[in-house]
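Reopening this one. Same input as before:
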Amino acid sequence: MAQCKQTAHEFIQNTFSPAVAVLCSPDAELLCHKNNLSFVELVQPFCRLTTEVHIRDPNNVPHTIKNLKITMRDMNMQLPQAVTARKMMNDVVANSQPQLMEGGRGNVVTFGSYDLQLSASTPWYETYRDTFLKVLPPSDHEFLSHCLCCIFVVSSGHSDPINAFNTLSSNQHQQQTQFPTKMPRWFCPGILKYYVLVHDVVEGEDAKYDIAQYQNLALRAEAVYQSMKSTYGGQNCHLLHINSRSLHAAETMHTDLPDPWSQFLNKNNSETNSKKRNKARYYIAWEGAEYDTAASSSVVDDAFPTKLSEGTMDSPALAGPILSNSSLVDMSPDSGEGTASTGSLASETFDHPLSDPSDNMNHVDSPLSPDKSYEPELNHTSSKGKLGERRQGGHGICLTTSDQDRIKIFMHELCVRALIPWAERQMKILNEQHASRKGISKSLFSATKRWFGGNKPSGQVASNQNTTVVYSSDAPELQMRRLGDVAFLFQMYDFAYNTYHAAKRDFNNDHAWLHYAGALEMACISMFMSGNPREQKYPFHYMESAITTYLQSCKNPLYATRATLVSTEALKSRKMFNEAALQFIKLTSEESDLRSALLLEQAAHCYINMEVPKVRKYAFHMILAGHRYSKSGQRKHALRSYSQALQVYKGKDWALAEDHINFTLGRQSLNLKQLDNATAAFKHLLTENSKQIPSQQNAFLREYLFVYKQLLGQEISNYGSVHSNTLPELPIPILDNNATKVIIGYKPQHSQDKSGHIGYDYSESNHARWEALEEALVSSANNGIIPITHRSTIQCFTNKTDNRFNPVAYVGEPITVEVYLVNPLKVVLVLTEVTLLWSFLPSIPGQEKSQLITNEVFSSVKNTLANEIIHTQVIDEIVLPGNERSPVQFTLTPHQTGELRIVGICYNLSSSLTDDRNVKPSPANTVFVRGKQRLDVQGPRLNNTKEEKSSKAYGPDRRLDLVIQPEMPQLQVSFCNFPKSLLCGEVHAVMLQFTNIGTSPLHKLKLASSTPEFITLGGQGELPKFPCVYQTTSEVSSDETKCYCNTKDRVTNVMDIPLPNRTLQPKNTVSVPAWVRGNDIGGVHDVHFMFYYQPVTNSPKVRHRLQRHTAVINTLESLSVRSMARRANSVHQTPSSQGSCIISCEMENISQVQANRAYVKEIQVNQVSCASDLWSVQYLSSQDKPEITIGCRETMHLCLKGTKNAGNLDSMLGKESVIFSDVSFSDQQIKSSTTPCADFFLRSKSHNNSEDVVQSKTANKLGEKNFSELNCAIQLGMTLIILWKACVISEDGEVQIKVGQHHVIIKKIDTIFTSYPFFIIPTEKPPIRFLKSRDELENPKLESEVTTQLVDINFNHQAQVTHNFQNNKIAIVPVTLLLRNCTKSTVELLVDTSTSPDRLSNRSEEKFVNPEVHHLTSFSWVSQTMTKLSLDPNQQRAVHMTACFSKPGIYNINRLAVFVTHNRDSSEMVLQKHLAPSVVVLQDVSAE
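Same output, byte for byte:
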């Protein structure tokens, strides 16, 4: 927080101090010039008394004066002209820059959530303030800056010193009386005159004086001094001895004495230039970088040249010799932000608006104030020639310590013996006049004076007074003001306050507003200086009234500014920062931009120093100050102010304000040739949170590119190349680092692959599927064992894969890196010559440490050496629309082993120079720069231990750090004739081509698929020739064929691919036929293929390699088959055909005719085959087999008979085989036992049996392993293969013939099975029970579906019986009941004819039937009503029974009940189902 070097009391004492004029003779000046000083400069460091002195007020009360300071002024000094004064104040502000603390970061203070770097001090404000007060012209309404005394200085070497003193005194008197408006102004007619005789102790540098001559000179000087005392009085004279050291001795000796004059003197031009070249650097808030106030070259100083050509001051008001109030107001021109054109950085030379319009101005060096502030160069016509002849060297070189002590004594005697007594006398005189006036203030004379003006002279009012009242110099009101000023100058503040307070009433009554404002101002200051802060309250309203009167009534902004400068220091010392800020803001106006900027900045510091800091007000006023600094031409201070405000607005969602600040910072830095800072500022305008319109964003982008290109050009001109020869990072586009993907190996292009819809699938959702396929392949290659060291191979590394290990790539194989570019702006970005950046550490045998190689170069010229090591793809152009996220793929091909790290991307970022979108970009109207973006990926967050959960710790992610291994065999797979779409069940022949594009052989080639039922490579008999699908024969026979296969074990999804000599040599190609079959469910299906192979030469690091492919198949609906088997009801079955069944098939063409879409016009069923180890099928009809054609949306029923084989000898011998029986409906029979028909049957059976395996395992856990002998009662175990040929109408109307096959696995009787799988909707599960009941654990039960069909029931009787009911009322019909045990265990049966249900009527309706009618329409069993017997496995027995009929008709004799039990417990007998009716017709022949 800014702190001034002086306290408020010290500042006020230095501002209002007694002024003393000095008039020297030329010979005295020559003596002083030996020390490179004038007389005023000589005594300047000693003008403050170090001891306390005392003074008495007019009431004879003593007062102590501490640290009395005397202001020495050369009598020949004149105030600078208005233009010079403005330039002086502008220069002192421009040359004063902030100095840093250690570390280069200044003071960082925390205010709530803000960490602000604040300047420790504001020296530019202090120097401006001091300079302003020194060039402020004096006014007649006050006497604080008027000279109280005049010192006449003559050398003792003068021929007639007394006459010289008289001449100087008369000159002073003549100037005071004849030219009262000429500088300096005098306090009163009777000023103090003080005479100083300067004696040179060593007279002359080269003269050699003896002792006698030296004594004569000393005696002469003493004599002259005595004469002076007798003439002018002893208290008004002083003999000063100086130059005790000769020039020769001073030049030869090396003294380390301090130089007290250096802080008061102006620097020469060389020192000033050196200071400009070595200015400090300070911290810029927006970037965390140091800001060089002078940059690193001289071009920055050119931003503020001494002479500018922008314009000249032609105002006649500025040409006068005296600086008036109005001429000092406008101290700076209005210059907008960023005067330099963005189209060029070449600075034009302007005339400085504050420079002197005349080139013949004469200046001399003049003293500085003790606080190191700037003292303007003042006109000194009498000694300008001598000043130019100053010797080189230090100051005071001829002065010894004794000489300096004599000067201190001189100043002390001047004050104590002359000035203070004179002030006491003057105060008594003025006080007596005031007392006499006060006595007659109520008289008639006083009233008359108020009406008629009294002693106020009449005439025109001075234009610079801005008041309606003008007092004469001896007016009582002014005498009272003189009394108050003398008391204030000599620190009698209570007396001064009372005097000012009394004077302000008179001025107020007289409407002398300028005098009234001055009295108010000094009364307020006197109160502040006199009192204790705890005892007296600061009269803030006095100063407010004074400032308001200065501004509004007097139109005098200069004295209002002085009052503000003094008052704010008093307010700040009392911690009244809010009031001080309001006073600073009140003085801001359009009259002076520099003054307004300084005051606004001080107001901002007041807000930040309050007890509760107002941070946002601080930032807002710093912005206003920066704007006014910019208008005044103070670009460095404007840059500093904006950077201070940015600390508050940055990152606080003040998007537009932040953009304005950054843009202004960029422009100001550009004007100052600070291109690095300008680039950093414009870079922050290109963010994703920008709320600017597209045209403004495009303008920001052009600014950034232009400045950045100039920065690169500057570095090339300074260093010969870009600094450090690295590419800087560009802000746009943004890289989505964690979304970066790294793909190892070749990626087949659609144009190269013979099947364009087959490619890679790198979605994270399929990673588990690929991992399962790899484990299956590794297990198959290692005899069913997965090695402990096995780690799943990752070919596509993403943010969801395990990236703890480095990816492994191989020499000669490409590496694809997919990077997501995000355009945060609303404008189109054009990137050209885009490529990856990498660093490579080659592994060279015999070298422990290799040299790091990188392809990062500044220019876009191709790096030939790096490209030979790592071939890098270059993308010519990428167009990113606004607010878009686009993936871009780059390819690297390593040619040497080592360690490769992907660093980022480099590109040329370009933008059009015009907003017209119709203009095509060209080198003439575009600007581009080359830069880079870094790729830094972040690993997964660790959340295992307590420490990791409580902190943000991330694991390693090495997907961009690759290890390059030597060349390996590499497999390339091509799919020939691979379909894009298939019908459901369609079989299509394809050709797989395997090419080893590597440099070494491979073997153990395997294929695994996520859907093993989709593809087969053959293996059942002779393979059909490509592109044929099935093997056919023209000889249609019903002979059964056998196919040996693994019917017990499940068919795995791993297939071995045959290779010649079991190896595939480099550059060789092998073609392998394969067949694919469409899914049974329509829709789009993804089929994943993984190819596994091993290098012939074993490598400890790489045991196997993989190739992944994904096919997208669109499956169209074709045929739907529904089948059900029932037990045959024939009683004439031979023993060999016992247990036959009837199979009904319902086939439907479910394809629909739709526009612009392929559909199946008709389906021809060529053949139905049965694959089973126990069953064979036959066509049920005895007629010729018709041709079966099913049109669109048509359905056809087909009945077949299934018979059990007498016995499969292979099964008896332990061999595993499947018997295929065919029913052909065409002239060509398909060999169903060969590839691909048998293969797809086995794979589909394996697919369907997988669920049965799971169910059987579950059943075994429940203790149901003994029920298998009973379950066989309903199980069939056959598969129907429907081979068909379809006529397909494609989208373009072309007719295509396709073949395929459907499988219907019939597992049990009386159940419908389909060719398409059923998805059972899961029902709500009952509540989980952790403990089962004892009955469930000890007595597992069979399903009712099995227990009700353990025995096959058939009736054997005459179908038609004739009987004469007239002769015999009862007809007896013998019936044989055939009972066959369908299980493999012994069962107990009970045949009950007494409770048999009526199979032809509903028993629920019999209670409403007349019993007589029921008796007439029914029959009765007339034999044993209950028969019990036992059946061995597969045994058939006959039970002879008799049915009795009372009238003719048609009867269903299936009216009995059969109960069966399998555990000899009669209480668990189950009623068997026998739904098929057995009809007998009784015909009456009595009528015949």
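So the earlier flakiness isn't reproducible anymore. For the record, The CA atoms of residues 1125 and 1143 lie 4 Å apart.
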